[in-house]
Fold each of these.
Amino acid sequence: MRYVLLLVFSFFTFQGNARSPPCCRDMIGSVACTRQYRNNRVSFSDKCNQNIEFRLLQCCSTCNKSPDTFEYDSIVPQLLAEDCQDRYGEAFCDRNSKQLYDNQRLDWCDEKRINISFRICRKFCNYCGQNSTINYTLEAAVNACSSHKYSSNKRGVMLGMINVLPVFSTV
């Protein structure tokens, strides 16, 4: 009796599963965003109305307070449609989604790493494109602030892909 050994290799691509828009806050700080607005209102408003990363990540809260910018609910879907891409390509995002950290798979598209995943792997993580189910409204972005938590581990707090080690005072 002969047995045939059949090996089946399954090649699959992990696609991210982003569920909510980025939290609407000023990631670079409200002081920095307010200074930009006060120093050059026209330039600030142009960034809010033309640059999706600036609008959603860097100065979201201040952009929404400015009378010179379009409303979040109308401009954000338009900006996403114009700039729905992965900065370094799908292969880069796929390769990095399979990394291990402390013997656990690092979920590249996890909302805890939104500051990295939205900038670098926007389409791969389904923040935009035909597979995206995210409702981009200001209300959803404000509600996302309470659900976006940072993961912690024994070495410190993980912010995106950057580890910030705890500092202990010897005083």
Amino acid sequence: MIRQPTTLDAMLAWHSAALCGPVDRHDGEPQCGWFKRKAVRGGPWLPVRVWLDQPIDRDTGELVGDETIKASCLGREVDPYRLWLGLRPISRAEYEDIVKMHMEIDAMAAAGVPVDLTTTPIHPSRSLA
């Protein structure tokens, strides 16, 4: 029996529904998509991407191993099961905006420290355009 990988539409079905309104969320069942979270109250939003790692045979297109749910936050792999209930679904565009802010605003780098962007100076050469 050929094992077919989960389709992109199926992977993102929960996320798409969550962007439209409230959906059930179950502990221990992270879903694929783009999310944001805070490490501390008053801290900056952190972008989190959750995806399904699929070991696929290039020649046949079938799965050669188990699909595994994975997540990353600012390029670092994180445990999607531990973070799941604290993630807020966002659009891919908002996810990319948060990533961009982390690259351009120095105060955003200290994810574990509260930051008030209304009082934090943003240098013109590094501001968001």
Amino acid sequence: MALSREEVAARYGAALFGYAQDNKVLDNVYDEMMELKKAVIATPQVISVLSDPILNSKDKKDFLTAIEKNFSEEVQGFLNLLLEYDRFAYLVDIIDQFAVLYDDKNKIASGTATTAVKLDDDQLKRLGDGFAKKYNLNTVRLENKVDPSILGGVILQVKDRVIDGSVKNKLKKIRAQIIDEN
């Protein structure tokens, strides 16, 4: 029975994570995999070529060798493993799964700060730092989403937590109180 995309990503992501952690190169491998992901997203033809069933193994290996020369032995070995087992089509999913494991280990979370106006980097950092401190995390990376309909304040969504400090929500609560009192 064939594995689903999620199962392949989970297995290979966990294998890479375990290998990098055991060899004490986790941070370096993480950095390289994030760079690789950016490059592959910018140039999706790389995955197309390396997962093309028509191309022979030698041509794929030659192509991969040209790409991987800037990476560590660990990442090179992993990329060769993906090529050998014909898993290159799953590369971005594998990297994403690896990143989830890395973030969990390092108490890093990502989320969204929805505001009525755009926040600058310093404001986002302070919001993230405050959330991280409150929820015992090392780092919270926030992306700013602008939604003028919330009127003001901020809605923070990080992992499974939502903190709605928007003016719209506060007005809604006040309205509900007034209606309940009458």
Amino acid sequence: MIGTMNTADKSLIQMDLALRRRFSFTEMPARPEFLAGVTAFGVDVEKLLTRINQRIEALLDSEHTIGHAYFMPLKKLENNADREACLASIFQSKIIPLLREYFFDDYERIGWVLNDSVKAKENRFILLQQSAQLPSFSALFPKEIADSLSDRRFRINDNAFASAEAYQGIVA
């Protein structure tokens, strides 16, 4: 029997301890090389995953690197448009939510992992919301609190998922 478990998942600690007593474990690190030759949006997916994982390891640790399995559906797709749609879906429904969990919704750090700071605003996955769209801190809090806060309200840029430059910027 083969079972898999993400070592970063601490919510199942009792189950983890029980399994560790009963089974032997083999570490299965991410293997971006399994994605060699796969491209989408003009980006080598092996390099994309490698760069993302290098940044995650620098900011967190190797236990949080993203596995190649998330990207394996791309391998069976022949059509570039299908691969692009699949990669967008992987990022939107798997990678971004996973990064949100890893970084406790610290969107600034998520942006660092995705190298958003070097991209044009429209190609960033994470955007700082415009203050004009939101109530000011002075409208929300007493002056002494409002004056001490830095506006760090972020949002996901849904348009980036269909942007080649958004993915190309990750490996830049």
